[in-house]
Structure formats: C-alpha cells, structure tokens
C-alpha cells in the first residue's frame, strides 16, 4: 500500500488480507478460491468490492457488444478495455462510467502493452491512480484483479514463485499437491493478468526473480523437475512510486522487460475536481453518506488549496507560495472530502461545509509540525484571507489551526 495512509485507497493490504484469513478459519465457511473472502458473502455486502464485481454490469455489456478481435484469453478487445477505462456510451445506450481521467493515449499505450510480450510498469508520484488503473486493467482484461503481490521490503521470492504446504510436504514429500502457487504462478498457468504493487520497495534480488518469468515466460520448479509455462494471455502489471526512487532501484535487466507508462497529476483543476467528486460519490454511497452535489463548491476549494500548495503558486499565477512536505495528491483530496462528508452526515446537517474539511486539510498539509505549519499559516494569511467568498473557509481553517 502507499506510504501515505490513505483510507480511500484500493486493494487489500497484507494486514487486511491476513485479518480476513484469520476470520475465515471457521470450518463451516468455505473460503473463496484465493482464500480472500468467504464465497457466500454477496458483492454488495463487501466493504470494497473488486473492480470486476463493482462494475460487473458494465463489463458484461461491453463483452456483449464488443465485436472486435480479442487477444487470447482476453475478456474484451483492447478497444473495449480502453472504453471501459475512459468511459463512453455503447450502441445500445449503456453508459460506461470513466474510471481513469487523463490522457487517452496513456490508456491506449497501457492496454496495448498488455497485448504484447512486454510487461507494463505504471510509474508516478503518489496518488496518481497507479494502483487504481492496474486493478481496472486486470479486471477488464482478465476479469480478475485479485492475482496480486504486495511489494514491501520483506516480500520473499515465494511471492513470485511458489511456497509449500508444510504439512503435506512432510507427510508425502514434494508434489504438486504440496505446492502453494503464488499469484504470479497462477496467472501464468491460467493466462491471466498478475499485479505487483510497489515493485521498487522489493529487495533487488527478489525483484530479479521476475526476470526469468518475464523473459522466458516460464517458472521452473526444480524440486519436482517440472516447470510452469505461461499460457497465452498472461501478462504482468507493476506499479512503482516516483518518490521511492533510490530505495531499491529497478535493475536495468528487469526494466528492459517493462514498457513504462508515467501517470501524470491531473492537468486542470476541473479534471481534478471531477476525479474527486466521482470517487467521493462512489465511496460515499458505499458508506451511506449524503450525495455530493451539495458539496461540489467545497470540493473545488479543497482541490484549489491542494493544487496551489503543490504547485507553489496561486491559481492566478500572481503569488509564489512555499510548498509543504506532504504530497497533497488527488488521493488525499478524496479522503479529506470523504471524511468531511462523514462529519457533515453524522454531526452536521448533511451539507458539506468549510468546517467539515478544515481539519482534514490541516492534517494533509501540516505533516511536519514545525516547517509545514509556517507554510500553512502564511498561505492562510496571504491568500485565503484575501480571497473573495472564502471568509467562511478562512474562519474554519483559523479555528482548527490555533
Ligand atoms: N487521473 C485519475 N483518474 C481517476 N481516478 C484518479 C486519478 N487520479 C487519482 N485518482 C483516484 O485517486 C485514488 C488513489 O489512487 P491510487 O491509490 O491508485 O494511487 P497510487 O498512484 O497507487 O498512489 P501510491 O503511489 O500512493 O500507491 C483512487 O481512488 C483513484 O480513483
Ligand atoms: Mg498505489
């Protein structure tokens, strides 16, 4: 998961996965095929359904009307995958919601890469939707976004290869039955998309175990004198954070196996407001929070503050600003607004106001209590205070800043 704690983030963290596993030990409940959730929990009940479940209707409509050629084992043609990601309307009038807001070309290159023999590396600063895009790509291409390896400093080689069920191993010796395949191994055997999160946090020698998989498309199992050869349709999407550069540099041998796509920050304030409003609406609905339209002005203000501080200059280009140490990403704007909506719903009148987002903004901006506080106060006094129609916002921020 991201370095920043980001409640709206996607994908099970190792901790989440572990706790789900711990609760599914109950023998009467059959765990799902990946052990991630009991299979009899309907998707509507899960706190955060996988992309392929949340957007099952859109994916089915696309598959039904997609008459373009599909690469082996793809659920959709590359054209339909791009349409799923960027949004649009199908001939029968079905509306496909945009998942990724950004340059069309980026999506086209990413989708095309998956249809070649090169893997895809999504690179970018925190909160630029690397994980999000990777999940939706896997969902659209393979109908399954769960073949996931979470990269950390402690990720072992087994996470890419295989492990052993020791009880079976000791009882019967090494056999296919005793082998526990990694998500990557399963993706190879089934011709699906595997995902690796935060590739550059993984120690270099472990990263290198991906080289054979990506170049030879095979995974040897010396203990059994066998190998698993990748089936057509297999590919891999990795994400890496720009800010982690230098933690564990990607070896050049491994980098050559990837096509790199750099995800940019949203180009315009309007695009960023749209992303935040859309995601907050989705998250809010799953948490039964009030609808967003009431709060769109407040969203615009949060996005404006984040962008100005991030860019180090006011939107009109007139005043130079110091930037705080936090990333102030779109993802953080999403959590600030979601938390604000929850405050408004539970302790206010359900309408998002300045007072509901002020605490969240302060928390996102002031990461370093000394230096960032000065930056924030200067911004409040020189920019926010003077801005027409921002008096309520200024007062709300002052109140929590003291
Ligand atoms: N261009 C965008 N289009 C759609 N959603 C976006 C965009 N940028 C950010 N988001 C939203 O931001 C949230 C966080 O994105 P995500 O977790 O994928 O970021 P990330 O790049 O993986 O960050 P990190 O480097 O911290 O892991 C997601 O909910 C996603 O919807
Ligand atoms: Mg991520």
TrEMBL record:
Residue numbers spanned by region Disordered: 22-43
Domain of life: Bacteria
A Gene Ontology molecular function term of the record: ATP binding
Domain ATPase dynein-related AAA: residue ranges: 120-258
Pfam families assigned: AAA_5
Name recorded for this polypeptide: ATPase
Organism of origin: Streptomyces calvus
Lineage of producing organism: Bacteria, Bacillati, Actinomycetota, Actinomycetes, Kitasatosporales
């Amino acid at each position: 998961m991201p370095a920043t704690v980001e409640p709206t983030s996607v994908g099970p963290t190792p901790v989440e996965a572990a706790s789900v596993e711990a609760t599914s030990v109950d023998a009467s409940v059959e765990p799902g095929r990946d052990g991630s959730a009991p299979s009899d929990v309907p998707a509507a009940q899960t706190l955060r359904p996988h992309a392929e479940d949340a957007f099952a209707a859109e994916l089915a409509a696309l598959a039904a009307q997609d008459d373009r050629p599909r690469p082996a084992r793809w659920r959709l043609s590359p054209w339909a995958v791009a349409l799923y990601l960027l949004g649009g309307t199908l001939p029968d009038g079905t509306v496909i919601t945009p998942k990724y807001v950004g340059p069309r070309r980026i999506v086209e290159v990413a989708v095309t890469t998956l249809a070649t023999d090169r893997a895809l590396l999504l690179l970018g600063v925190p909160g630029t939707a690397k994980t999000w895009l990777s999940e939706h790509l896997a969902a659209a291409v393979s109908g399954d976004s769960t073949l996931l390896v979470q990269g950390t400093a402690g990720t072992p080689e087994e996470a890419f290869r295989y492990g052993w069920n020791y009880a079976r191993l000791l009882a019967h010796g090494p056999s296919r039955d005793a082998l526990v395949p990694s998500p990557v191994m399963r993706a190879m055997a089934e011709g699906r998309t595997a995902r690796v999160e935060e590739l550059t946090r993984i120690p270099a020698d472990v990263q290198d175990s991906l080289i054979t998989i990506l170049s030879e498309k095979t995974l040897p199992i010396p203990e059994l004198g066998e190998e698993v050869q990748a089936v057509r349709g297999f590919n891999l999407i990795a994400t890496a954070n720009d800010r982690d550069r230098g933690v564990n540099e990607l070896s050049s041998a491994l980098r050559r196996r990837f096509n790199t796509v750099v995800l940019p920050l949203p180009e315009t304030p309007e695009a960023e407001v749209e992303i935040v409003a859309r995601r907050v609406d989705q998250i809010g609905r799953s948490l039964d929070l009030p609808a967003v339209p009431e709060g769109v002005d407040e969203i615009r203000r949060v996005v404006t503050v984040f962008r100005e501080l991030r860019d180090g200059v006011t939107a009109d280009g007139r005043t130079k600003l110091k930037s705080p140490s936090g990333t102030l990403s779109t993802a953080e704007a999403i959590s600030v607004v979601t938390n604000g909506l929850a405050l408004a719903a539970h302790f206010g009148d359900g309408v998002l106001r300045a007072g509901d987002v002020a605490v969240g903004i302060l928390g996102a901006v002031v990461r370093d209590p000394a230096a960032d506080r000065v930056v924030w106060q200067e911004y409040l006094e020189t920019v926010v205070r003077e801005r027409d129609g921002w008096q309520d916002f200024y007062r709300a921020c002052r109140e929590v800043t003291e």
